[in-house]
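BACKBONE GEOMETRY TOKENS:
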Amino acid sequence: MSNFEHAFLAPAPAEPVEPGPVPTFSIIIAAYQAERHIAAALGSALAQTLPAHEVVVCDDGSTDGTAEAVAPYRDRGVVYLHQENKGEPTAKNVAARAATGDFVVLLDSDDEFLPQRLEALGALAAARPDLDVMTTDAYVEVNGEIVRRVYDVASRFDVDDQRKAILRGNFIVGHCAIRRDLYLSIGGFDPAVYTADWDCWIRLILGGAQVGLVHEPLAVYRVWEGSLSSSRLAYALGHVQTLEKTADRDDLDESERAVLEESLERRRRAAELTAAEAALADRSPGARKRLLMIALDGRFERRTRAKAAAAALAARAARRRLRRRTEAGESRLGRPGY
């Protein structure tokens, strides 16, 4: 496992850390309407060079053939749970409570792990037993084609001052491994928050957790062409919701509070712009007026204001640009399940 050491990124330990044993990993999968892809996800989970302690699937009330797709893997030790449809966060929490490994490792039902992923995470965990959350880089696949890595020139994993970094934005790939006891102690994912993953990472890091990365692409993160309006807008509003929830905490120092307030204002502007774009894409009445108001609003950057004005004046061309942006995988939208 030492061949992965060169690729580790993590905050410096507060005090010297002695290497420890490789922990056990329980892979958990929340599944909804997942019959098309879940076999590939399960196959990748069971093909790890470091075998998982267990694989737990929570079917969140699927009405398609998800149960039948999972059935052949139950003979290979996959644990299958079923609940009424309550949403992805709740399904992940149910699976985590049923798991028994030291860490739970999140795998979406239409993504895949490369064979050495758990081995790499195990090497990092053994080298840095002080880390509570770990992840790896991943390939981004758009409509069946690998287009980039998650951590590329436009996106980085933050090592320094992760408390402030996580308030600025979500720098953690969602396929992460989380110390199970810690995950359960904070209540897992909050089903009331749309961007529940970012909210969970915020609560973990502000609670003292440190996050490490194996800087190798060891998963496939799939993006599906989706809605130009409702999904992007829901995520934008979810970002605002997550930060407004965080603003109610009383454990931020003055500098962290300033970062949070700046981030929240930026996300509010982004949600306002996304709402205007969604209205334009849906040909909603008043869409051009909303864009023109943004063009005249000094809170927005000059470039954004210019684009808003151009979109208002050339709506058809703007709709085409929005469509191309979605197809290029700017956002993870329109997934058929979890």
Observations:
- Residues 193 and 241 are 7 Å apart (CA to CA).
- The beta strands are 8-9, 25-31, 54-60, 79-83, 103-106, 112-113, 133-142, 145-149, 177-179, 211-223.
- The mean pLDDT is 90.
